[in-house]
Design goal:
Layout: E1 7-15, E2 18-27, E3 32-38, H1 46-57, E4 60-70, H2 72-75, H3 81-97, H4 108-112, H5 128-194, H6 203-216, H7 220-237, H8 244-264, H9 268-288
Parallel strand pairs: 3-4
Antiparallel strand pairs: 1-2, 2-4
Length: about 290
């Protein structure tokens, strides 16, 4: 079964008063284009995370985030009491040394704006047990994205099968018009010659010219190659994921045969069928870009 390159996954886990969350999303791309946003405490593990993602996803434009949310009790920024006391003592010493009056307004708003009074403490070293939890969250998010890709891939495969069946049906509809077209061409040439008075016709040469002209308009080879491409496309979809580029190449070859058939179709009924085949193929080409 084929896989889509479009997907989304998210996972979370609690660890010692904080919530570790991983989010990952992907869209189509010719190669792996990975962008990461990782909480500072996990930055040392970025290469391991990148390897984990690239080994699993292979292709696509991927955005990955690993971040931390704290509960309300731990979210408040702590006040550095030692620094605050030092500022207060310095201000009082200055007031005393220079015989100044102490400020009458509240000191606290001013003190809280001074450097380093509010300090956000982060662990400088990542504990192994925390990393085990964070890595598990990242793996769960990647697994969720892969499940999404499989689901989307199944929908794409059903769509492709429908379009391939439609083109196959349209190809079969050409044959009756093709047979009638050959007889129509032959009758038109003969009638044209008979309309010219006193013309001596070399019947052998006429037959040769008619055969040459009809062969130039013959589409049996195009029909056969197109049928082969349709069958090959269906077989390739059954070969598992990683077939997106190959399916794209096959679709291009299908388009070449349909275009050649159209250029050789000199009656309206055949041209209308070719237009319908092109429409079905265009929908395949649009969606095959999303296949991994």
């Amino acid at each position: 079964m084929i896989l889509s390159m479009t997907g989304y996954g998210k996972a979370s886990a609690e660890f010692r008063g904080k919530k570790i969350t991983a989010e990952i999303k992907s869209v189509n791309s010719k190669a792996l284009d990975l962008q990461t946003r990782i909480a500072p405490i996990y930055r040392e593990k970025e290469m391991e995370l990148r390897a984990m993602i690239s080994n699993t996803l292979e292709r696509g434009k991927v955005d990955f985030s690993l971040y931390i949310e704290r509960d309300d009790a731990n979210a408040a920024t702590p006040i550095n009491r030692a620094v605050l006391k030092s500022y207060v003592d310095q201000i009082r010493d200055i007031v005393k040394d220079y015989d100044l009056d102490e400020p009458e307004e509240q000191w606290m708003p001013t003190l809280l704006r001074l450097p380093d009074v509010l300090s956000k403490t982060e662990a400088v070293e990542l504990a192994e047990d925390e990393w085990d939890v964070a890595r598990g969250v990242a793996e769960a998010a990647i697994d969720a994205l892969m499940a999404f890709r499989r689901q989307e891939g199944a929908a794409l495969q059903r769509k492709f099968e429908e379009k391939i069946a439609n083109i196959t049906s349209l190809l079969a509809q050409i044959e009756p018009f093709e047979t009638a077209r050959v007889e129509k061409i032959r009758s038109r040439i003969v009638e044209g010659l008979n309309a010219i008075p006193e013309v001596q016709v070399d019947r052998n040469r006429l037959e040769q010219e008619m055969i040459y002209y009809i062969e130039k308009l013959d589409i049996n080879e195009e029909k056969q190659r197109l049928a082969n491409h349709l069958r090959y496309f269906s077989e390739t979809m059954q070969n598992g994921h990683g077939q997106g580029k190959k399916l794209g190449f096959i679709a291009q070859e299908m388009g070449r045969e349909i275009n050649t058939t159209g250029s050789k179709s000199n009656i309206a009924e055949m041209q209308n069928i070719v237009v319908k085949m092109k429409d079905e193929l265009e929908q395949i080409k649009e969606q095959v870009l999303n296949v991994m």
